[in-house]
């Protein structure tokens, strides 16, 4: 298969087409816009047989997806930042009704100040909504993840919505080499969606009924079991994807970690910058590794423990502020994880790339060579902040 | 529901808590929420049926004699029937059950 140069947003729309989505409902917002524009074109040109629903807000966009998925359609949406926040209450409904909607979340900073640029404040504000969450480092991963997302979400053992995170602009708006899988291969990997329950007058069911105190706890426990158990299916799907399409993915990826006791850990496309820094460090004789969480929800605990077993110092890089918490969101979770698993690791919290601020690989070289020491004021270091 | 709600474990629930048994809400008796009881003065009642039309729980039922009376399994004592009665035939009184 040959690679083509294509803007990642357009490639994602093409991936949704390859997945034969039946309903697209979205509201345009920068930097997600090119994805839904291209999907609208594909539908209008008759290249994609799908209903494209024009709605008046993101709240309606996801609500329409909930309805379409409940009726049994393979459903796609995409949003960013404020759009995700406007969807917020429906995020929980999609996951607790167990509807396998796929959303490409083009990560962008939340207002205020108004910013259209990338960071992870949007996803971190929605990280615990019961959705499966994948993070992508490049355009090929984004395309492949959209296809895998449907296969994972629609699996009868899972039945959960999946958010595929890609960084706004640094990923969404760049032209990258992408290898598109053949439609026949995608069709064999991803058969049509066969819902367990649908809204159909021939067999009436109630979805979203009232849950009395006698039943609510059991309902939430059942949902928790579903997302925890989904990890085995996610790994199975990634493995099968590798066999069919010859590109291999793991829920936790590493780079140069084999002989290093020092490692970075981050989410998304910033990992490519960190890899560049690691190569620079290696050329200078310092071995530093990278741990990249492709899967963020469910949290890949066992896999992370495995890769952390030789790590003595962990530099966690995040594109989100603590907002009054002790540390940034992923760092807090990792701290608790390390404590409860008895890991003896020095952990440092770095915040970078807020609101689209560029992060030069040299910054990561500096971090690796000059560890942040808590100065009594902050529990973390914001890279490049002018004080 | 085949058994009382408090007997269900998480494994017994359908995916997404879908209810695939139409009419199962009948098994949940809302009558024990009631503090006030609708009492009809049948000398004022004209059998117009507004109480039956407005009852949100379909708990005001037509009787064989053409009058209407509450189904105490489901009547929550909300008082909408008394509010809507054009002839002030229904009074809400304390339910000393």
Strand proportion of chain A, as a percent range, falls in: 15-25%
Q: Could you describe the largest sheet of chain A, including whether it forms a barrel?
A: 7 strands, mixed
The CATH superfamily name of the largest domain in chain A is Thiamin diphosphate (ThDP)-binding fold, Pyr/PP domains
Nearest-angstrom radius of gyration of chain A? Answer: 21 Å
Give me the count of strands of chain A: 15
Uncertain segments of chain B are none
Instruction: Assign the CATH topology of one domain in chain B.
Output: Alpha-Beta Plaits
> In the CATH hierarchy, what is the architecture of the largest domain in chain A at level 2?
3-Layer(aba) Sandwich
Oligomeric state of the chains in view:
heterodimer
For the record, the CATH class of the largest domain in chain A is Alpha Beta
H/E topology pattern of chain A: EHEHEHEHHEHEHEEHHEEHEEHEHEHE
- Largest interface pair: A-B, 23 and 17 residues
Number of domains of chain A: 2
Number of helices of chain A: 13
Head-to-tail CA distance between termini of chain B: 26 Å
Q: Widest sheet of chain A: strand order?
A: 3-2-4-5-7-6-12
**Radius of gyration from the alpha-carbon trace of chain B, in angstroms:** 17 Å
Describe it for me?
The complex is a heterodimer of chains A (387) and B (97). With 387 residues, chain A is α/β, with parallel strands linked by helices. Chain A has 2 domains: 3-245, Thiamin diphosphate (ThDP)-binding fold, Pyr/PP domains (Rossmann fold, 3-Layer(aba) Sandwich); 252-382, Rossmann fold (3-Layer(aba) Sandwich), CATH 3.40.50. Chain A is built from 13 helices and 15 strands. In chain A, the strands form 3 sheets. Chain A has a 7-stranded mixed beta sheet with strand order 3-2-4-5-7-6-12, sandwiched between helices. Chain B is α+β, with helices and mostly antiparallel strands. Chain B has a domain at 29-94: Alpha-Beta Plaits. Chain B is built from 2 helices and 4 strands. The interface between A and B is medium-sized, with 23 and 17 residues.
């Amino acid at each position: 298969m040959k690679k083509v140069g294509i803007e990642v947003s357009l490639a994602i729309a093409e991936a949704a087409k390859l997945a034969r989505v039946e309903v697209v409902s979205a509201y345009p917002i920068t930097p997600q816009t090119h994805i839904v524009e291209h999907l609208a074109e594909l539908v209008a040109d008759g290249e994609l047989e799908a209903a494209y629903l024009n709605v008046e807000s993101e709240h309606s966009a996801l609500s329409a997806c909930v309805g379409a998925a409940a009726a049994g359609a393979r459903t796609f949406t995409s949003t960013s930042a404020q759009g995700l926040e406007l969807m917020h209450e429906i995020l929980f409904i999609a996951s607790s009704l167990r509807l396998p909607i796929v959303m490409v979340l083009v990560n962008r900073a939340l207002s205020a100040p108004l910013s259209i640029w990338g960071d992870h404040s949007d996803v971190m504000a929605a990280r615990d909504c019961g959705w499966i969450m994948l993070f992508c480092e490049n355009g090929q991963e984004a395309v492949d993840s959209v296809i895998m997302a449907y296969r994972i979400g629609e699996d009868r053992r899972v039945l959960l919505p999946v958010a595929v995170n890609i960084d706004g602009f640094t990923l969404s708006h760049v032209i990258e080499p992408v290898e598109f899988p053949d439609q026949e291969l995608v069709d064999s990997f991803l058969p049509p969606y066969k819902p367990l329950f649908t809204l159909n007058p021939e067999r009436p069911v109630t979805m979203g009924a009232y849950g009395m105190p006698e039943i609510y706890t059991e309902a939430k426990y059942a949902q928790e079991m579903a997302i925890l158990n989904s990890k085995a299916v996610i790994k199975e799907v990634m493995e099968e994807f590798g066999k069919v399409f010859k590109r291999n993915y793991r829920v936790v990826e590493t780079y140069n970690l084999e002989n290093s006791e020092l490692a970075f850990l981050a989410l998304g496309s910033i990992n490519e910058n960190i890899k560049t820094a690691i190569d620079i460090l290696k050329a200078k004789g310092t071995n530093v590794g990278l741990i990249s969480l492709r899967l963020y929800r469910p949290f890949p605990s066992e896999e992370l423990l495995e890769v952390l077993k030789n790590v003595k110092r962990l530099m966690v890089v995040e594109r989100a502020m603590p907002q009054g918490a002790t540390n940034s969101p992923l760092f807090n979770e990792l701290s608790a994880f390390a404590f409860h698993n008895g890991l003896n690791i020095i952990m440092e919290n770095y915040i970078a790339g807020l609101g689209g601020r560029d992060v030069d690989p040299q910054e990561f070289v500096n971090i690796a060579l000059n560890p942040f020491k808590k100065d009594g004021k902050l529990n973390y270091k914001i890279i490049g902040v002018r004080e | 529901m085949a058994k009382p709600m408090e007997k269900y474990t998480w494994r017994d629930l359908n995916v997404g808590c879908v209810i695939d048994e139409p009419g199962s809400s009948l098994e949940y008796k809302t009558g024990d929420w009631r503090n006030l009881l609708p009492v009809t003065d049948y000398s004022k009642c004209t059998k117009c049926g507004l109480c039956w039309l407005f009852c949100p729980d379909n708990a005001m039922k037509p009787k064989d004699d053409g009058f209407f009376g509450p189904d105490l399994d489901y009547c929550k004592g909300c008082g909408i029937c008394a509010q809507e009665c054009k002839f002030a035939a229904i009074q809400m009184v304390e339910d000393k059950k």
